[in-house]
């Protein structure tokens, strides 16, 4: 995960401090980027590294008051990675259209939703498709090695 | 997911017919490969495509009798992708050591387990790491586009 190009002054809001959210937040914080991370359960922040220097916000991100407190209106990047596809979609679509955030990324578990987002301005990350691709690469590589 | 190189006569056993297991099984079946897929819940097989031509086996894959029925002893490839990391590890390690299966792949949700498997002969797939990498690529690409 390089993330070398993201601008110094970009405001990044991450919704969901699970494994993925925490991992992205730690990487961006290591690069001295401005990160706010929101989670409904404050125990989730335990996944952040001790050196994480961003802002933590405990609250339900489907509540617009919580998002405003996270200064979503000033965000350049919104990353919706709760463990609920519908919440990620809802937040991504609403915030993109209301605040015209430059870059909105949502993680979705259900690959059948891919077609819906192909033509939207939301970037989607599908772990199941990425994992299937990786299994394919491992199997193809194994066979190449035997040749 | 290419999987073009996997040999025609390879016996492939997939444990877990969730999104990932079903996706791999469908791809391999489309390429006329020999696939057996095992799941504890027969409703899971509903995720397979109607054209899936492999064998379905309902049963608990932590029960060696079920694995034997799936002819794990003849398998060239074992792919452990249940939704439980510990079960995937257990099956992968035991079957690799007992039957010396050529290629054993396990999906693991917890990226902290990565270091444990780096030096084993089990290939691991970490959806959280793949997803974090993908988010990084999206963010880096966005910045490149603006330059």
From TrEMBL, chains A, B:
GO terms for molecular function: potassium ion transmembrane transporter activity. Transmembrane segments: none annotated. Keywords: Ion transport, Potassium, Potassium transport, Transport. One of its GO terms (cellular component) is plasma membrane. InterPro entries: K_uptake_TrkA (IPR006036), NAD(P)-bd_dom_sf (IPR036291), RCK_N (IPR003148), Trk_Ktr_HKT_K-transport (IPR050721). Residues 9-129 form the RCK N-terminal domain. PROSITE patterns: RCK_N (PS51201). PANTHER family: POTASSIUM CHANNEL PROTEIN 2-RELATED-RELATED (PTHR43833). This is TrkA family potassium uptake protein. It comes from Vallitalea guaymasensis. The lineage of its organism: Bacteria, Bacillati, Bacillota, Clostridia, Lachnospirales.
């Amino acid at each position: 995960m390089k993330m070398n190009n993201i601008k110094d002054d970009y405001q990044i809001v991450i919704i969901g401090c699970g494994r993925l959210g925490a991992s992205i937040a730690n990487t961006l914080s290591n690069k001295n980027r401005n990160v706010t991370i929101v989670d409904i359960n404050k125990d989730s922040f335990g996944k952040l590294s001790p050196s994480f220097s961003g802002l933590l916000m405990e609250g339900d991100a489907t509540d617009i008051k919580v998002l405003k407190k996270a200064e979503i209106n000033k965000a350049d990047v919104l990353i919706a990675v709760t463990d609920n596809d519908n919440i990620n979609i809802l937040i991504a679509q609403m915030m993109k259209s209301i605040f015209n955030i430059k870059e909105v990324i949502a993680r979705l578990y259900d690959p059948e939703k891919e077609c819906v987002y192909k033509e939207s301005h939301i970037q989607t990350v599908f772990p199941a498709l990425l994992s299937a691709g990786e299994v394919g690469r491992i199997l193809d590589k194994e066979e190449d090695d035997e040749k």
